[in-house]
Amino acid sequence: MKSKELPLRKCIACGQMLPKDQLFRLVKLQGQVELDLTYKAQSRGAYICRNKDCIELAQKKKSLNRAFKGVVNNEIIDKLFMELEDGR
């Protein structure tokens, strides 16, 4: 029996290709960028590595603003750091 491989996604900060379960998925829902922990929200998504360096790099490079074509509130960065601390 073949093992099912997870699809690869590209981190918007560092550009590394990783299996999508190793990345956070962010989506824009009703004008707000939200963290999609289910990976199933029906919206355009952007992925970012689950590490502090990539989150800080995305914030510095304004990668989220570019990915979602607008100004992204810094609260989402705080949510990403909280998820890292929780170990999810």
Key traits:
88 residues; alpha+beta; Hypothetical Cytosolic Protein, Chain: A; 3-stranded antiparallel β-sheet; two-stranded antiparallel ribbon; 3 helices
Secondary structure category: alpha+beta
Number of domains: 1
Q: What is the highest CATH level, the class?
A: Alpha Beta
Please report the distance between the alpha carbons of the first and last residues. Answer: 29 Å
Mean pLDDT level? 91
CATH level-3 fold name: Hypothetical Cytosolic Protein, Chain: A
> pLDDT below 50 for ≥5 consecutive residues: which ranges?
none
Report the total helices.
3
The value of Rg in angstroms is 13 Å
Strand portion, in percent? Answer: 25-35%
Structure summary, number of beta strands: 5
- Corresponding CATH superfamily: YlxR-like
What is the second-level CATH architecture? 2-Layer Sandwich
Across the major sheet, the strand order is: 4-3-5
The portion of residues assigned to helices is 25-40%
| Shape by Cα distribution | globular
Task: Please summarize the sheet with the most strands.
Answer: 3 strands, antiparallel
What's the SSE pattern? EEEEEHHH
Give a structural overview.
Helix content is 31%, strand content 25%. The protein is an alpha+beta fold. The chain has one domain (8-86): YlxR-like (Hypothetical Cytosolic Protein, Chain: A). The strands form two sheets. A three-stranded antiparallel sheet has the order 4-3-5, covered by helices on one side. Strands 1-2 form a two-stranded antiparallel sheet. The longest helix is centred in the last third of the chain and has 12 residues, at 75-86. The N and C termini lie far apart (29 Å).
